[in-house]
Each structure stands twice: as C-alpha cells, then as structure tokens.
Write a structure and sequence with these properties.
2 domains, 6-stranded antiparallel sheet
C-alpha cells in the first residue's frame, strides 16, 4: 500500500514538473524580442517597407510609431528617379501610429544609427 502511494506521489510530482516546464517554455517563446536600435525596418507582405519604432513584436497587435516610408519620384525632364523619406502623419486622417497585422510582417531589421535612413530620420525629426 505504501509503495502504491509513493508511486502516485512521484507521478504527480513528475507531471507537475512537466506542466511547469511547458508553461515556462511557452512564456519564454512569447517574449517580444528587444531591438538594439531605436528604429526598425518592417517589410510587409505588400512589399511596402516602413521605418519606425516597433513595439509589441511577437504579440497579436504590434505597433509602429514615428513611421517613415520611402517615396520614389521621377523628374519628368530627366527621367531620373529620386527617393525621398516621408514621415507618416500628413495624410488626411493624420495617423500617429500603425497597428500591424502580425501575419503580414515578413521581416523586421534594425536600422543602424549610421545608416542613410537613420540620418534622414534624424534630419526630419530636427525640423
């Protein structure tokens, strides 16, 4: 009788340890990554790239603030294409953030502080 109770207690302890380990593993897997830079480049399934401060990546509702994107313009005389960095927020609805569908995020990359994009963002923010 004593052996059966000991076996049962041991089984319960092992099961509780497995459940606890599984819960810890799931929580670690859900932790949002920490980005080493202030700005991130976010490529969406539409092919559009947005630059901004990404928070909540890995959650159901990641948010991008201080959002910029590249707009290409062609000079009608020279046919030369130039790219300019545009800050979101000047649209008619005046958005101050973007709530992203995580299923449409293809890749997220840090924007190096020494990159051309970071320099252009700094210029725009100083205006």
């Amino acid at each position: 009788m004593f052996e059966r109770g000991r076996f049962f207690a041991g089984t319960v302890v092992v099961l509780l340890a497995i459940i606890a380990g599984t819960l810890v593993y799931q929580q670690v897997g859900r932790a949002s990554p920490k980005f080493p830079t202030d700005f991130q480049a976010v490529l969406l399934t539409t092919g559009q790239v947005y630059y901004g401060r990404l928070r909540g990546f890995g959650t159901a509702y990641p948010v991008l603030t201080d959002v910029f994107y590249v707009k290409s313009q062609m000079d009608s005389n020279t046919k030369q294409v130039t790219n300019i960095l545009v800050r979101r927020g000047n649209e008619w609805h005046g958005p101050d953030r973007m709530y992203l569908n995580p299923g449409h995020i293809v890749v997220v990359e840090p924007v190096s502080p020494t990159s051309q994009v970071a320099k252009l963002i700094a210029e725009q923010q100083s205006k």
